[in-house]
Amino acid sequence: MAVPPALAFDPWDPAFVADPYPAYAELRARGRVHYYEPTDQWLVPHHADVSALLRDRRLGRTYQHRFSHEDFGRTAPPPEQEPFHTLNDHGMLDLEPPDHTRIRRLVSKAFTPRTVERLAPYVHRLADDLAARLVAAGGGDLLTEVAEPLPVAVIAEMLGIPEADRARLRPWSADICGMYELNPAPETAHRAVRASVEFSAYLRDLIAARRRDPGEDLISGLIAAYDEGERLTEQEMISTCVLLLNAGHEATVNATVNGWWALLRHPDQLAALRADHTLVPSAVEELLRYDTPLQLFERWVLDEIEIDGTVIPRGAEIAMLFGSANHDPAVFDTPDRLDLTREDNPHISFSAGIHYCIGAPLARVELAASMRALLTRAPDLRLVTPPDRRPNFVMRGLKGLHVDVG
What is the DSSP annotation of 280-320? Predict the structure, then answer.
């Protein structure tokens, strides 16, 4: 079924980007799958379908393990974009078994629960320090003063990136992630290619230094990781580091500001959280559901599938609408209501299946730490001016969130 022209789904419309949830409700009411011509994708809005498709091996993040571009009916990326695609295509998020299985197994040897546990005190100290600085300044932009510095510093600390180099990470990440939006513009692709070249060169030098002088950092762990004689190639290590940085902080930054903006619009919920900090864990889960930082996740159809009588052929692309799935009334009671005490909360903000976010435990630690620090240090935090949304649809965030703490 094609998306009707009058449908409000329009990822380039600022009004839609500001609040896509009414359009999602319309999509869900009209059916389980919709063809969207502007992006040549099949939109899937229901939680049950998204959850099932994330685990369906007839779909893949890539098709190149089975088909050439020509065999799959797709056009190869332009040659000038090769540095971006080399970087992107060797990360486990965009790989399928057996390569995905091998790389995730090796990365898991270095990215362990013990690693996260060891980092927790650092995360809490840094979150408290950032909140204290915000209070000392009398307020400021929560995005640049707390939301961005925390996860960037944490993942950089994990990777062993020197403090003097860390300011370069966020711009590189932002430029690369621009390619994950729908139909990116040529200038967006140009910036992503440039960032891919620069970031790859930087990491290549850092990996060489860690080979000569290993440390306790994640890069040293990735170099040492092996299983049955298999190791990560240099390109796989570079792509893994970039993926961990991008995925490890882009979503956390957006989840932080989206979450606080939601809290500030729901003073009753914020008051309950201020009165009872034990609500923080369930608040983190509810805020991830309520305003999902990653709105859409794509998969290629490797083998023909059928959804509600609609046959979707091999070679098609499916866009699973995480934001819509997280507001599906078939799964969530009164889904458009923010409820920090919500107990049954099977949101899919961290995906599912073999591509479930490997950094989810760390993201939860970071989000909880910054929330507790702000609740403690700035109990009277309030909004100065309503924020502007970033124009991005897929990665949903704010341009800033200016607050007063007096």
Answer: HHHHHHHHHHHT-SB-EEEEEESS-EEETTEEE-TT-EEEE
For residue 250, the enclosing domain spans: 14-404
Q: What is the pLDDT of residue 6?
A: 46
Q: Quick one: which of 124, 378, 392 has its CA closest to 251?
A: 392
Torsion angle of alpha carbons 315, 320, 321, 322, nearest 10°?
-150
Q: Is residue 236 part of a domain?
A: yes
Written as six digits, the tokens of 326 are 């997280």
Domains held by the chain: number: 1
Cα separation, 63 vs 317, in Å, equals: 11
Instruction: Of 399, 284, 253, give the one whose Cα is nearest residue 347.
Output: 284
pTM value surpassing 0.90: yes
Residue 386 tokens read as 């309503």
176-188 pLDDT, tens digit each: 999 999 999 999 9
Instruction: Kindly state whether residue 4 falls inside one of the protein's structural domains.
Output: no
Span 20-36, pLDDT tens digits: 999 999 999 999 999 99
Contact 398, 257 (CB under 8 A): yes
Strands of 53-171 (E only): list them: 59-60, 139-141
Q: Which residue has the higher pLDDT, 373 or 105?
A: 373
C-beta of residue 302 within 8 angstroms of C-beta of residue 73: no
> Pairing state of beta strands 317-321 and 41-44?
parallel
Tokens, residue 311: 């046959």
Helix (H) or strand (E) holding 371: helix 360-377
Q: Assess contact for 10 and 391: CB atoms under 8 A.
A: no
Under DSSP, the state recorded for 144 is I
